[in-house]
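Listing S7. Sequence submitted for prediction.
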Amino acid sequence: MEEVYRFIKESVDSHTNYVVVGVSGGSDSMALLDILTKALPENCQIICAHVHHNLRKESDSEQIFVKEYCLEHNILFETIKLEYEKSFSEAIAREKRYAFFEKVLKKYQSNILFTAHHGDDLVETILMKITRGTTLKGSAGICLKSRREFYTIVRPLLYLNKKDILDYVSKYHIPYVEDASNQDSSYTRNRYRKKILPFLKQENPYVHRHFLQYSEDLQEMLEWVEKEVEKRYNKTVVDKKLKWQEYLKLDSFFRMEILKKYLFSIYGEDIILFSKKHLCLIDSFLKKGKVNSSIDLPLQKILRKSYHYVEIAKQENRPTYHYRLEDEVNLPNGHTIQIVEDSNDTSNFVTYIDSSTVVLPLYVRNVENGDKMTIKNMVGHKKISDIFTNEKILIADRVSWPVVVDSTGTIIWLPGLKKTQFDRKKQGKYDIILKYY
């Protein structure tokens, strides 16, 4: 019990005017409420925050019990009766409960919330999470302190087990109510409490102390890991683009951590859509996938790998266009193809065509999957996708890149990149000059 008092005193400084404590009326929270009245500085006022979950008929009498206890002991009392728009779930109830706590904290300008989680809760939580499957952080269970945006959750009873708490309320004659649902084996936690915890306590009555030490050690290690991940992340991710060559220099653990952090920066809470298997598939793509390739991600996003960066973008519909080329065509990529009278340019941005060698009229369309073309002074056909790769054209630019075709669909020019066998020398025979700019 000395550790509990010491921890409370360390958590609340002499300038703290208000603390909020979540009180259900059970033995755990009533014990905590009494301990706080003895451990807190005289100038510090306790705000009892009680949640009426509106699920059991006993909830009304429990609310009255806690309220009357607070009146008798001059403790400020705040309460809420929850309503559920849809069916009940533990997650929804927890969200509503902590929203209420935060409202009370703001009302009294407090930054400390006490909850009555104890050592047995810690053991049950760790075992349940490991059994179900969890992250390394999740396997640490409940922490003595949890930092939130504007307040800290403090759990001093983690030093005690259930027997310690029952001994305390018995010794000091502290009233409390019993929640019959705690005996209902349909709840997973109750099965752990009734079947697994007694076995562990037979091996060691104070097994919760070892779990608490494990939790604290793991938290300390994770804090160090977070700092190391942050260092590497800042070198690897710039402007929401991941430098994949730097990423691949890291060992697998830091790659996974950086990948999770990077995805979280894009997806936020939707990060739950990515399992460990998904992360491994993305990692494999970054190691083995071709440059200027992409893979689909959840919520209509794609991950694109260019020559230096990986970035996540919204999956857009492939732009399609097909224009008849007469005098001038303005293209979706911001460029223009124009029929000009004369030119001295012999680069890939101009082509000279003899109309007798093609089937008029000419058309301009965007590149399509499977497109092939003959390249001037080369034998055979070459895939345009391979040309894009050789020329290091970004995926984002490829989908709207133009090709010029004749009426048979034959590609006669890949503007700005390659000419075909239809291109004539400047001194040769031609009657059509096309310019791309």
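Caption to Listing S7: primary sequence and predicted structure tokens for the chain studied. The first helix runs from residue 2 to 11. The chain is about 40% helix and 20% strand.
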